[in-house]
Amino acid sequence: FSQVSSSSCQGPYIAVITNRNTNLGIRGFMLFSIGVFLALVLNLLQVQRNVTLFPPDVISSIFSSAWWVPPCCGTASAMIGLLYPCIDSRLGEPHKFKREWSSVMRCVAVFVGINHASAKVDFANNVQLSLTLAALSIGLWWTFDRSRSGFGLGVVIALLATLSTQLLVYNGVFQYTSPDFLYIRSWLPCIFFAGVITMGNIGRQLALYECKRMSGKTHQD
């Protein structure tokens, strides 16, 4: 009798763990796909405006981008999108500010607009452009996030991404035209910060949808 009861208890438990792992994989794949798509679109803007320059032999003719850029951005997007709800759970502070898909889509639109501005809007100098993009990026966080954990993660990941980009440019993988912050443009950390906030919002919304669906199944059972 004890063996039967223990196996009956383990059955639902194992099913829940399996569902969580499956859902985590699905969310990761969706975030990876979104990151790849945004990388292709936004990098195309940068290359067309000659903001970033890749060696001719690594350029893909379809999207004017090096082959490794979309997978790297997709992987980073998946990690960020999965990390944000995990941190919220660890801190015991579920993020409830503007938790609807319409808000997430507006956040993505603003992020694309910030990238567009960095590539196509002409400013008097790079300092003015950097200050403008910094204000827009913080405004994006304030409008769609407003969490301390979101801001802190955004700053840390943006700094790490900036350092990685500096190393890539230093080693000749690609280059920026008119660099004014060592080997890169001074506004690049602002773009990274806005991107982290955007992918964090998408990841949180996907996690919220998963929680609602799982709780609905639990109630039905």
TrEMBL record:
This is Insulin-induced gene protein. The chain crosses the membrane at residues 24-45, 65-84, 127-144, 151-170, 182-203. Keywords: Cholesterol metabolism, Endoplasmic reticulum, Lipid metabolism, Lipid-binding, Membrane, Steroid metabolism, Sterol metabolism, Transmembrane, Transmembrane helix. GO terms for cellular component: SREBP-SCAP-Insig complex. One of its GO terms (biological process) is cellular response to insulin stimulus. Mediates feedback control of cholesterol synthesis. Pfam families: INSIG. Belongs to the INSIG family. InterPro entries: INSIG_fam (IPR025929). It is a multi-pass membrane protein. GO terms for molecular function: lipid binding. It is found in: Endoplasmic reticulum membrane. Its main location: endoplasmic reticulum.
